[in-house]
Structures are given as C-alpha cells and as structure tokens.
C-alpha cells in the first residue's frame, strides 16, 4: 500500500507540472533571439512588439528617400532618411550642380519641388515646424553640406526634432549659400536691436533655393 500511495502522489505531481506547461503560447522559431521569443496571448496583436515608450518597434530602421533636382530640373543628388530611435539619420549625396562651399540644408513644409518661376522651389514653403514647436531652430533645420571644387559633396547627420513619419511627404531643400544658424554677434544690429533679426532666425540667411527633393517613403 505504501508503494501504491507513493506512486499515486508522484503521478499527481507530474500531472500538475505538465499542466502548468500547457497554454496558448507557442515558442517562436525566430532566429537570433536571446532569450527565445514567445508568441501568443502575451504578445501584441498581430505579432508586433510594443515599445514601452510608445514608438512601434516595427518602424525602427524604416527609410525614406529624396531625389534632389536643380532649377533646370536635373537630378544632382540623393538623400536617404532612416528612422533612428526617437529621430532620424540623414545621408545626403550631391554629384554636381552646386557651387563650391557650404550650403544650408533644411526640411521644408510642402512636398512640392517646382523649379519654375522667378524663385525656384518656393513651392516647398518655409522650414518645417512640427505640431507644438515654434521658434528657432525650426524642426526641419539640418547641418549644412560642403561642396568641393569638383561640385561634389556628402554629409551625414541626425535629428531628434522630427520623426520619419513627420517628414515623409515634405521636401528637402539645399540653399544657394551657407546657413549662419542665427549666430549673429550682438555687436551687429538690425532695426535697432543687437543680434539676429527674425528673418535670420527663420532662414539662416542661406539665400535662394538651389536644389529640392520630395521625401518619399522607401
């Protein structure tokens, strides 16, 4: 009797252990995950992981591109925008068509690059300001690009002022001159006030628009 009771107790314990291992979750076969991924009731709907900071993990690494054209509507370069954390990573390459030196570069609010008219690419509107942001620097402000004597240049930069979603459908504009980023010493004055005026703060005094490209989802 003692042996039978012990056997029954052992079987009952084993049964409970096995029952505890059975649920609606299934081990994932996704390679390279440590620890192994489990899909099922604990996962987000549709199998998409959820970011505790509110950013969908499926967006990380997403890209958008822009083909840059000059006032003659000739392609002179490209730009690639990649989702990176809470912002974007930007790579701009110019293969010709711009004068040597620094050129201001900004994301503008309208995704229209019309080279016609007295002021080419004025259709792109002003510098992008995302909802809830005002003042200088604008949400769409980027670093300048340097063009060498051969008319070529490239730059890589990042911005946490915008997301890929916020810039898709907008325009990247490269200006004819350098951007001073509003860095005007107080010894200079405009309208009787020292330092940069409103126009300088909003435009960086970068001059006309030399190239433009609509930012399209990759």
Keywords:
about 220 residues; alpha+beta; Immunoglobulin-like; 2 domains; 3 helices; 14 strands; about 15% helix; globular; disordered N terminus
Judging by the overall fold, what is the CATH architecture of the largest domain? Sandwich
Overall pLDDT score: 74
| Rg result | 28 Å
Beta-strand residue percentage: 25-35%
CATH homologous superfamily of the largest domain, by name? Superoxide dismutase, copper/zinc binding domain
**Assembly state of the chains shown:** single chain
Overall form: globular
Care to describe what's here?
It is a single chain. By secondary structure, the protein is of the alpha+beta class. The protein folds into two domains: 2-43, no CATH class; 59-217, Sandwich (Immunoglobulin-like). The chain is built from three helices and 14 strands. Strands 3, 4, 5, 7, 9, 10, 13 and 14 form an eight-stranded antiparallel β-sheet that branches. Strands 1-2 form a two-stranded antiparallel sheet. Strands 6-8 form a two-stranded antiparallel ribbon. A hairpin with a 2-residue loop joins strand 4 (75-84) and strand 5. The longest helix is centred in the N-terminal third of the chain and has 19 residues, at 2-20.
What is this structure's SSE topology?
Layout: H1 2-20, E1 26-27, E2 38-39, E3 63-70, E4 75-84, E5 87-94, E6 101-103, E7 105-108, E8 145-147, E9 153-159, H2 164-167, E10 171-175, E11 189-190, E12 193-194, H3 198-203, E13 209-214, E14 216-217
């Amino acid at each position: 009797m003692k042996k039978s009771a012990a056997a029954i107790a052992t079987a009952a314990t084993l049964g409970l252990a096995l029952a505890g291992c059975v649920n609606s979750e299934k081990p994932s076969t996704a390679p390279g995950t440590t620890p192994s991924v489990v899909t099922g009731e604990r996962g987000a709907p549709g199998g998409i992981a959820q970011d505790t900071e509110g950013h969908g993990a499926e967006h990380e690494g997403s890209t958008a591109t822009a083909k840059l054209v000059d006032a003659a509507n000739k392609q002179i370069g490209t730009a690639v925008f990649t989702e990176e954390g809470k912002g974007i990573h930007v790579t701009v390459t110019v293969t010709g068509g711009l004068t040597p030196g620094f050129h201001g570069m900004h994301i503008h609010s309208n995704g229209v690059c019309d080279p016609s008219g007295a002021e080419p690419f004025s259709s792109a509107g002003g510098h992008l300001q995302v909802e809830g942001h005002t003042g200088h620097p604008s949400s769409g402000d980027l670093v300048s690009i340097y063009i060498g004597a051969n008319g070529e240049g490239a730059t890589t930069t990042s911005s946490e002022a915008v997301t890929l979603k916020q810039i898709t459908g907008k325009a990247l504009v490269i200006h004819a001159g350098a951007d001073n980023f509003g860095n005007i010493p107080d010894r200079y004055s405009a309208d009787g006030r020292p330092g940069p005026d409103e126009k300088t703060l909003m435009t960086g005094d970068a001059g006309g628009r030399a190239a433009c490209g609509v930012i399209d989802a990759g």
